[in-house]
Amino acid sequence: MPLLSLRRRSAVMAGVVVVVVSAESVVITPYARRAAGQLAHAQLTWLLPAVAGEMVSMMMFARLQRHALGTGGLRVRLGSATATVFAGNAVGATLPGGSLLSLTYRTRRMRSWGASASQIGFAHAVTGVLSTIAFALLAGAGRVLAGDSSQLLWVAVQIGAICALTSAVLALLHHPAVLRRPVRAFFHLLRRLRRGVVEQTSADRLLDELAAMHPPARFWAWGLGLALFNWGGDFVCLLAACHAVGASPPLSTALFAYIAGMTAASALPLLPAGIGVLDAALIFTLHHGGVPVSAATAADLLFRTISPGLVSIAGWVLLVQQRRRPARPQRVRDSDDHARTVSATPDAAAEQAQ
């Protein structure tokens, strides 16, 4: 029954993707023909900064996850972290289920490195919080560039609310006695639902590990910088793609288009790479800012060829290599601050995709 349900969900997601892409193809076909001509005459000098920007973006996200895991004492090699980010992006961008499958894959890779449940949860939470704050700052920068400061207060309120909520959660985690009863109840319910098939991590141990994490202020500052470079590198890729096809939108217009596209994609996280909705938002916003539809379509096609196109190709190559090669051991700190070596077993590509 679970397998049947999984197949039904996959079929529904595949159907949604087909419908979205088909509808989008009908709408943009007349413009895509003209865009193809502009792509054929794309300026190669702009392709290098476009690809470089995307590579910087991926590297910064890998460093961000590595930085978050380091708080729990797990020392991950940068090469392993980078390969995992590329492979996770490939899984999320090419398979129905999108970001959920990517998150599942990265979680399993972290387990293979020897990360505990608390380290994995902390890394995902910190990555999400810092990325959200960085994205809000990017949106605020777009308002400033456009000369519109009316929404800056709302941006500041959003960032303040995220910071306040994060601080409250951290303060609560540092008093595990308050959480022991509800967390134990959750673990008990989880074991009953899964009939005992659950990771052998006690509620008390999980809370104690989380309470032991005390990231200093510099941890948050450095992590926010990495998140900003992650978003910034991706935006540079889009900006360079616009210039490559002959479109030269104002910086504020390109930034608004990027923010609109990423926001639309996040609204439907199960669509692989935000296919359809991201492209429509990107093209519409560029056109609204004065870019011809054919040029906006060409810029979108070039941008999407690099991200997720080239990134996904590289990711699947790395995913196959992970299956063939034994994973290199990572260094983990015990509670007594002594280091030990943990052997990592790579997950099979088929297993990650399920």
Keywords:
354 residues, mainly alpha, 3-stranded antiparallel sheet, 13 helices, 3 strands, disordered C terminus
Strand content: under 5%
The rounded Rg comes to 22 Å
Termini distance? Answer: 15 Å
Helical content class: over 70%
Ranges with pLDDT <50 over ≥5 residues? 196-200, 334-354
- Helix and strand run: HHEHHHHHHHHHHEEH
pLDDT averaged residue by residue: 79
Number of helices, counting only DSSP H or I runs of 4 residues or more = 13
Number of strands: 3
Main sheet record: 3 strands, antiparallel
Strand order within the widest beta sheet: 1-2-3
Structural class: mainly alpha
General form:
globular
Describe the structure.
With 354 residues, the chain is mainly alpha-helical. It is built from 13 helices and 3 strands; from the N terminus they run H-H-E-H-H-H-H-H-H-H-H-H-H-E-E-H. The two termini are 15 Å apart. The C terminus is likely disordered.
Short synopsis of the structure:
With 354 residues, this protein is mainly α. It has helices at residues 2-40, 47-71, 78-94, 99-112, 117-145, 152-173, 180-193, 203-211, 217-244, 251-267, 277-288, 293-324, 349-353, and strands at 74-75, 330-333, 339-342. β2 and β3 form a beta hairpin.
Chain-wise SSE layout:
Blueprint: H1 2-40, H2 47-71, E1 74-75, H3 78-94, H4 99-112, H5 117-145, H6 152-173, H7 180-193, H8 203-211, H9 217-244, H10 251-267, H11 277-288, H12 293-324, E2 330-333, E3 339-342, H13 349-353
Antiparallel strand pairs: 1-2, 2-3
Helix pairs in contact: 1-12, 2-3, 2-5, 2-9, 2-12, 3-4, 3-12, 5-6, 5-8, 5-9, 5-10, 9-10, 9-12, 10-11, 11-12
